Amino acid sequence: MALLAPRDDLAQLEVGSTQSERHSNQNTSSAVMAQRIEPANSADLFPTPPWATRALVEWISSQDVRVWEQSVWEPAAGLGHMSNTLAEFFNTTEASDAYPYGHHHWLWDFIADDHRTDQRWVADWIITNPPFKLAEEFCRIAIRRANIGVAMLVRTTFLEGVGRHRDLFSITPPTYVLQFTERVPMHRGRLEERGSTATSYCWLVWIKSDNSQETKLRWLPPCRKRLERPEDYRGAI
């Protein structure tokens, strides 16, 4: 499978209002057992353990989706842990981020650059672990841009909220909520092989061909031991 490399001209794009500027006004208060500790002015970089991405793609494939024939775009690529994992399965994988982390990805602000109509930014799937404070905007844009489906890795508490229900879920409810039965440990700025967390995560999946407007809950059974690989953490930062 191919992880596509950025052209120099796009890699040097100057993005407008970047995600970091929006983060400067974050409200960082939340329940202690459900929060992901993050400085208010940071880029919200929480690398996703590869096994959690493999669990998603394994589930998608179980729904008779031929991912090996399809394309995927990871628009908050960070250090590349998710995009590299997606490239194990999809035919083509695009990776972008608003910040030049040094990973081999395009420089593209998923929100500020949404007005651009470049054909490169069209994919069958859009899959990412979005910045939490921007996750609602990421969902709306991804649902509009993806051809087949969208998957967003979010805290389970993302399902709460009157405003989020009004502005997102009541209009475009996810087709599936895939709730991890295991904890998915994520740490700011680094991937930890022996990390732990009190935070619960789930995948929200939108299948654009499903017009039922009904959300189905599925549990992802324990799978970390089976899907984790030693090489996932070699040189991890």
What does this structure look like?
- The protein has 237 residues and is of the alpha/beta class.
- The protein has a single domain (48-233), classed as Rossmann fold, CATH 3.40.50.
- The chain is 22% helix and 18% strand.
- The protein contains 7 helices and 9 strands; from the N terminus they run βαααβαβββαβαβββα.
- The protein has helices at residues 8-11, 19-23, 50-62, 81-86, 135-145, 162-169, 224-227, and strands spanning 2-3, 71-74, 92-97, 106-107, 125-128, 149-155, 176-180, 201-207, 216-220.
- α4 links the parallel β2 and β3 (92-97).
- The protein is globular and about 40 Å long.
- The two termini are 24 Å apart.
- The model is unreliable at 4-42 (pLDDT under 50).
Write a concise keyword list for the protein shown above.
9 strands; 237 residues; 7 helices; nine-stranded mixed sheet; globular
Question: Any chance you could write out the topology, listing elements then pairs?
Answer:
Layout lengths: L1 E2 L4 H4 L7 H5 L26 H13 L8 E4 L6 H6 L5 E6 L8 E2 L17 E4 L6 H11 L3 E7 L6 H8 L6 E5 L20 E7 L8 E5 L3 H4 L10
Parallel strand pairs: 1-3, 2-3, 2-5, 3-4, 5-6, 7-9
Antiparallel strand pairs: 6-8, 7-8
